[in-house]
Description:
This protein is mainly alpha-helical.
Amino acid sequence: xSGKRSVLSGGKAYLYILPILLLSGLFLYYxxxxxxxxxxxxxxxxxxxxxxxxxxxxxxxxxxKAYLTALRNNLLFFVFTVTIQAALGLLLAVLLRAKLAGSxxxxxxxxxPVIMAPIIIAAIFRIIMDTNFGDLNATLRALHLDFxxxxxxxxxxxALMSIIIVNIFEWMGFSMTLYYSGLxxxxxxxxxxxxxxxSGFWRTLFQITIPxxxxxxxxxxxxxxxxxxxxxxxxxxxxxxxxxxxxxxxxTYVYKKAIDEFNGGMSAAAGVTILVIALVMxxxxxxxxxxxxxxx
Length: 296
């Protein structure tokens, strides 16, 4: 009787998750499968006719300079944003954990950009970084630093760096919140023992805090991988992938191929490479994170 009840109970559980399975299958897994299928065809994205061409879309993709630029930009974006964002977030979390006066106000201020719409952040920074009338260049000229007053979004040398800075500003508060939660789980006795042993701020940070928040760092790295490969709105709103195609990202490349150039096959092939890169990088990061946890 108890076995029958157990089976029924299990069947009931499947009924509860059936709607989400159907929705996932329809909107997620079907889309992934159709993207794979399309990547082996020549298709303009509109007609019902699709011509099978094997791996030609992939060969053209890896011979396209714009795609290789997008690939390089995504890699640079990931390395710099994840590293700097995590370092600043951890530093802020450590300072706020010290229970400074007004720490709750600072936490709110740092977190506000996370909940702001990207279009608002992009519009604000487009005004701030305007070459002729922006506050950034006006401030630099007022400080007699005219050589630093450059075309932040119009010069290929600085455009990608400007996008990275804006992204760090937007998501630094998120890193700070995760690290702050991780720091609250560390017993105060550990820090008190370190203090009694004469450990200073930097030694405590590198030998105690950073190893104990390794799990949070791994989480942020995985989220950073996914986030960098999904980045579209800030790039599209600030530079549109320009000047030229110097700030092209994989997502903007996929969009332009499908919408502007009516090349659904190459767009799908680029989308497949994004999925493969995300899976490989996530698996590598998880393996490194697990190894780090075992070594602790």
